[in-house]
Specification:
Radius of gyration: 42 Å
Number of helices: 2
Strand content: under 5%
Distance between the termini: 127 Å
Number of strands: 0
Shape: elongated
């Protein structure tokens, strides 16, 4: 009698386990769950691709800076050359300024908006 009870209980436990397993698998295969899983995997792949692209861009930038330094040394170009001070010349003198007007010269206004 004990053997029959043991095997009956073992069969019931195996049936419950198999039913639970099948129900979980069926829930995983619903269209909503499949779409959510696909979206999650796509996001993960996008993040991995972005991380690789950023790493690649940083590697390219480092290599570019290194190559620029090598070329600068080979050509004898300083990295921070001193630039001359910018020169500022007025294209047209300000004739309205009394400092720029000679007393013996006739002055003309170059303001096109002024009435003549």
């Amino acid at each position: 009698m004990f053997r029959r009870t043991f095997w009956f209980t073992t069969g019931v436990a195996a049936g419950v386990w198999a039913t639970t397993k099948v129900n979980r698998r069926l829930k995983q295969l619903t269209p909503e769950n499949l779409a959510a899983t696909a979206a999650d995997k796509a996001l993960e792949a996008g993040h991995r691709l972005k991380d690789r692209a950023v790493g690649f861009a940083l590697d390219v930038r480092d290599g570019m800076a290194q190559r620029e330094a090598e070329l600068g040394e080979a050509l004898g170009i300083n990295e921070n050359p001193e630039l001359p001070a910018p020169r500022r010349f007025a294209a047209i003198e300000n004739r309205n300024n009394p400092k720029s007007v000679d007393s013996d010269r006739t002055t003309y206004s170059y303001n096109r908006n002024e009435d003549h």
